[in-house]
Amino acid sequence: MKPRLKYLQTAGTWIVVLAVFFALRMAFLFHEKHQIQRVLHQTFKDSNQIKVPPEPSALQELKSLAKAPLTYFDTLFTTAHVPISDAPPKWINNHQVNLNTCDSAELEALPKIGSKMASRIIRYRDRLGGFFSIKQLLEVKYIDSQILEQPNIVFSVDTAQVKKLDLAICTPSDLYRHPYVGPSAAKILLAYRKAHPQINNPWKDGSQVHGIPLEHAQRISPYFR
Fold first, then answer.
1. Environment class of residue 82 by beta-carbon count within 10 Å: exposed (0-12), middle (13-18) or buried (19+)?
2. In a shared domain, residues 153 and 184
């Protein structure tokens, strides 16, 4: 056989072998692709058939938790039930405050009045013997007009509760310690009492006390019988 013819036969054989190899390879890849597509299709079909349970509502979760038994750790944080009143604070609905009968606790419950302010009001009321006017509240240290102008609070005074002095029998210290009398006016009133021992209120009949101005006398006179 001639060499050229032998070479052509060998080359043709390799071409046939390679063609068969590539044909088998393509057939294998096509089969593998088909298997993958079939698996994916079945997976997607199965996922559509899965029924996802609906999520429970917040109310259902609370009901289920309420029915569940308490654990040891739950009991550590369990607190006693404290009833909450829906009623508004007393001072919201035009709270009435009688300045001559209220106590410190009632004053502390009001807006803009703390414990120190309430104590000052009570002490000043005791020194006066009581309030004849709500405007006298402004004479207390650090009290301003905004406290009297609060729309939900109605201040009042019961003048029947005022403790009055009797000039005929009161002691000098009673006169000295009264905010409206003081030492200077007390000396004048003691001298007046010495001259008029039976008079308990020097201004009751409209008379004047020498040495005490009329304006000052008008402030003092309501605190005498």
1. exposed
2. no
The residue range of the domain holding 96 is 90-161
Q: Are 139 and 123 in contact (CB under 8 A)?
A: no
Q: Is the pLDDT of residue 79 over 80?
A: no
Q: How far is CA 197 from CA 74, 184, 201, 214, in A?
A: 80, 19, 11, 22
Which distant-in-sequence residues (6+ apart) come within 8 Å of 17 by Cβ?
none
Q: What is the DSSP letter of 43?
A: H
Sign of CA dihedral 141, 142, 147, 149: positive
More confident residue, 71 or 73: 71
The verdict on 194 and 142 lying in the same domain is no
Select from 135, 153, 152 the least CA-distant residue to 144. 135
